[in-house]
Specification:
By secondary structure, this protein is an alpha/beta fold. The chain has one domain: Uracil-DNA glycosylase-like domain (Uracil-DNA Glycosylase, subunit E, 3-Layer(aba) Sandwich), CATH 3.40.470. The chain contains seven helices and eight strands, in the order αββααβββαβαββαα. β7 and β8 form a beta hairpin. The protein is globular and about 55 Å long.
Length: about 230
């Protein structure tokens, strides 16, 4: 299955990335079981000139790992893309497939871990490896990004580490805001997983508040630059 993600000027993992043996073994097993699926590191998706980067966790087994596009084909993507459209950050129809014509404007999605992990739980070593090899270079290659939204603790930790920060100085909490060492602003959100939505840990209103705040922070940044 081919991915139709927008080109992003960032380092991408090769289809047969060998860096994490456990993830490689899981990927090979899925290729044998589901040969029509993507079953490879999932590329970033979005606008190369984005001001906002959404930091996700990792591809879902039947979502991005199947379709080849972040948050496409699983429950989490429904709320995410609906919310992006509400803020004018997504255009076109989201039909849960990579060839639906959906385009992102001003936003890019970058996962902390590029391959699907068993039980959706990457190990600390896998997170560190992918952050160093791909996640940090990806953010570095997006110079227009001024605001990050981290979906969950793992994505938050990866964003902090990618910016050279100490985790103890940047505690995770829903709607928490941080000025990272590289000057970018980080806004935290609970992940838009099915579990968090079904238990009301994250409601649509709570999720919208995250992006409303991100837009306000970006407007303030632009205003400050114009005033200098």
């Amino acid at each position: 299955m081919a991915s139709v993600t927008s080109p992003v000027p960032a380092q991408e993992a090769p289809r047969d990335c060998p860096l994490c043996p456990r993830l490689v073994a899981f990927r090979e097993a899925l290729r044998a079981e589901h040969p029509a699926w993507w079953n490879a590191p999932v590329p970033h998706f979005g606008d190369p000139e984005a001001w906002l980067a959404i930091c996700g966790l990792a591809p879902g087994k039947q979502g991005a790992n199947r379709t080849g596009r972040p948050f496409t084909g699983d429950y989490a993507g429904l709320l995410l893309y609906q919310t992006l459209a509400r803020f004018g950050l997504a255009q076109g129809s989201f039909a849960e497939r990579p060839d639906d014509g959906l385009a992102l404007r001003g936003v890019v999605i970058v996962n902390a871990v590029k391959c699907v992990p068993p039980q959706n739980k990457p190990t600390p070593q896998e997170i560190a490896t992918c952050t160093h090899a791909y996640f940090r270079p990806a953010l570095a290659a997006l110079p227009q990004v001024r605001v990050l939204v981290a979906l969950g603790r793992i994505a938050h930790d990866a964003a902090v580490r990618a910016a050279g920060g100490r985790l103890s100085a940047y505690p995770f909490a829903h709607l928490a805001e941080h000025r990272l060492p590289d000057g970018r602003l980080l806004v935290d959100s609970y992940h838009c997983s099915r579990y968090n939505q079904n238990t009301n840990r994250l409601t649509p209103a709570m999720f919208e508040a995250v992006f409303k705040r991100a837009a306000a922070l970006r407007a303030a940044e632009v205003s400050n630059l114009r005033g200098k």
